[in-house]
Design a protein that fits this description.
The structure holds 2 protein chains of 2 kinds. By secondary structure, chain A is an alpha/beta fold. Chain A has helices at about 5-20, 25-40, 60-70, 75-80, 105, 120, 130-140, 155-170, 210-220, 225-255, 285-305; strands spanning about 45, 50-55, 80-85, 85, 90-95, 110-115, 145-150, 170-180, 185-190, 205-210, 260-265. In chain A, strand 3 and strand 4 (about 85) form a beta hairpin. Chain A is globular, with a radius of gyration of 20 Å. Classes of the chains: A alpha/beta, B alpha/beta. The interface between A and B is large, with 56 and 59 residues.
Chain lengths: ~300, ~300
């Protein structure tokens, strides 16, 4: 592609062909991005019921845990992550569809709600039953799909929900977007450089947030040129408008299907410091925060139902 | 890094505040971004509520001078010469940055909306030669031309959903002529000093990832593996982004019961080697016949649907 514009044009036509003529293939392509982003960190295994299970993920990693055990043991204890002098285990269980919730095949005919978001919604550093989407589903007496990918915006998730979930599930009680923090702009990329020479359907692809590059850039202590600085600061604007787009896309798609849609912005959702606890990685918010989100969404849902 | 993050978070709250509390600010901001690509270059005059000029960056004074010198015969063969002089083009832009009438003049009239890139804008063509103008004439209505040369649908689709479809109550249909692939825009400051101004005053530009890529290629720059992976995967990112832009408009139209039609410039193939297919004045873009073909296709889609 870099040295061949025609190849880029051909790539586009191949994408169009897949999208128009083989929707299943298109969705499996999206699934690749999702699974590669949501699979637990090292030591994961595939269970007999096909769930992918692991005990760490990139932000709540084995390394982070070792580090916290060594340097922040009291904090871990304070937030209830220590029992009998051992740190509690967390199970990251990912469905074949790539989400931290049940396989679609298990809940296809049941009432469901859909949660969309980033690591907060995914539940980094928390057990699945402590997540807001799990709690909300409990209160609404239904199953759920957790369309969350850590460390990115809702770029891919919003498209997946409109293109697949809203089209394939008949009993959706509500769609809930917990908007990721600002400044996130995602790129789809190849996992390995060798993948660039494979056909579209054979490639290993993943989703990365551009802020990772910014982090690397800033940490490298390299002095940015004015052009680089403009782009870096401009990412903020670009991501702002992308997040508005994700919201509008979901809102209108849901409206067309008569599905209730609710939105909460993580940047505007504040709870008192006293009510705050921490997830096991000591970076993300804990179970209490998730209860508050679930309560807020529940209230929004019930008000809407009454109207 | 921490300081940068904090800054982003504060900026976001500030931006949200500015835009949520004053929708006008938000719309003006989007308009300003559109204008950066649609306003004519050189000696632009503001006349009767329109910005008017004779050239724009892709059909620029330089291109014109160069073509006059090196490709005069080609200009002549493409009907751009009259009495030995190259024909003039009026680029007349409304206050929102659209190459069509000011919204307040047509607010209560039936309209169609056209969305796209330089093709829809009509680079190198007179306004009455563009597909949207012709389509509006066939459908006996006014039109809003939401197009940004060199760009994807990212900003125009947002402007359409957030503003145009809200203020116009008599929209007959929305037509999207999908721009060529691999366009991914980043908004950036026109000048780094702009970042210190209040948001509503900041001068924002649209930077194209593809342009960076082409520049890098021209410079024969060596890419590391990470850069290669990112650049090569732009195909995936831009495809999904363009799909989302289209879907956003489509869902909004569906919501408002407005007919929606799209044609993809990449798959819209016409025999441009035939003599009747002339070029636009910049000798790069397609000419009037190509636009007529687009008009006819959209017209057929609209009438069939009806």
């Amino acid at each position: 592609m870099i040295n061949n514009p025609q190849k880029s044009y051909d790539e586009y036509l191949s994408h169009i062909e897949i999208y128009n003529n083989d929707k299943d293939e298109f969705l499996s392509l999206m699934k690749k991005f999702i699974v590669s982003s949501n699979a637990p960190d090292e030591y994961f295994k595939r269970l007999d019921d096909k769930y992918l299970v692991g005990y760490y993920n990139p932000s709540d990693s084995f390394q982070t845990l070792q580090n916290n055990l060594k340097n922040n043991y009291n904090q871990l204890a304070e937030y209830g992550w220590v029992k009998d002098k051992s740190v509690k285990q967390i199970e990251y269980k990912i469905s074949t569809d790539g989400w931290r919730s049940k396989h679609f095949s298990e809940i296809q005919d049941k009432d469901i709600i859909v949660g969309i978001g980033c690591s907060i919604t995914y539940g980094t550093g928390l057990n699945q039953e402590d997540l807001w989407i799990h709690k909300l589903a409990d209160r609404l007496n239904c199953e759920y799909i957790n369309c969350a990918i850590p460390a990115v915006s809702s770029f891919l998730q919003s498209l997946y929900v409109t293109e697949y979930i809203l089209e394939n599930f008949d009993n959706i009680k509500g769609v809930f977007l917990y908007q990721p923090p600002p400044g996130r702009l995602d790129l789809l990329t190849f996992q390995e450089i060798e993948d660039t020479d494979k056909s579209i359907t054979e490639r290993n692809l993943c989703l990365i947030g551009m802020h990772r590059f910014i982090t690397e850039f800033l940490e490298s202590n390299k002095k940015p040129t004015n052009y680089e600085l403009k782009i870096l600061l401009g990412i903020f604007y670009t991501s702002y408008f992308h997040s508005i787009q994700n919201n509008i896309l979901l809102k209108n798609a849901c409206k067309n299907k008569n599905t209730p849609y609710h939105f909460l912005d993580s940047s505007m959702f504040k709870i008192s410091a006293r009510a705050r606890d921490k997830a096991r990685d000591l970076m993300h918010d804990g179970e209490r925060y998730h209860t508050k989100i679930a309560n807020k969404f529940f209230k929004m849902y019930m008000i809407n139902e009454k109207i | 890094m921490k300081r940068f993050n904090l800054e982003i978070s504060n900026r976001y709250l500030y931006l949200n505040d500015v835009f949520s509390n004053n929708k006008d600010n938000y719309i003006k901001f989007l308009s300003r971004i559109i204008q950066t690509r649609t306003t004519p270059e050189g000696s632009v005059i503001f006349k009767d509520g329109y910005y008017v000029g004779k050239t724009i960056p892709s059909d620029s004074i330089d291109t014109l001078l160069k073509n006059k010198q090196d490709a005069f015969n080609k200009l002549d063969a493409n009907d751009w010469v009259e009495n030995g002089v190259v024909k003039e083009i009026d680029y007349k832009i409304n206050i929102h940055g659209c190459r069509s009438k000011n919204f307040n003049e047509i607010l209560d009239k039936p309209i169609i909306i056209g969305i796209g890139c330089s093709i829809t804008y009509g680079v190198g063509l007179r306004q009455e030669q563009t597909w949207l103008h012709n389509l509006a004439e066939k459908l006996n209505c006014e039109y809003v031309n939401l197009s940004m040369p060199g760009c994807s649908l990212a900003i125009t689709s947002l402007f359409c959903c957030e503003y145009v479809l809200k203020i116009f109550k008599n929209v007959k249909a929305v037509f999207v002529f999908v721009p060529p692939p691999n366009r991914l825009e980043l908004l950036s400051y026109a000048d780094i000093g702009e970042s210190l101004n209040p948001i509503e005053e900041q001068d924002i530009h649209v930077e194209d990832f593809l342009v960076d890529l082409e520049q890098a290629r021209d410079e024969n720059r060596k890419f590391n593996n990470i850069e290669k992976k990112i650049l090569r995967s732009l195909d995936h990112t831009t495809f999904l982004k363009t799909l989302k832009d289209q879907k956003m408009i489509e869902y909004k139209c569906q919501n408002l019961n407005i007919p929606y039609y799209s044609l993809d410039s990449s798959t819209f193939i016409v025999p441009t080697d035939l003599p009747k297919y002339k070029k636009a004045r910049d000798l790069l873009h397609d000419g009037p016949q190509y636009h007529e073909d687009i008009t006819n296709d959209f017209y057929k889609m609209y009438m069939t649907d009806k």
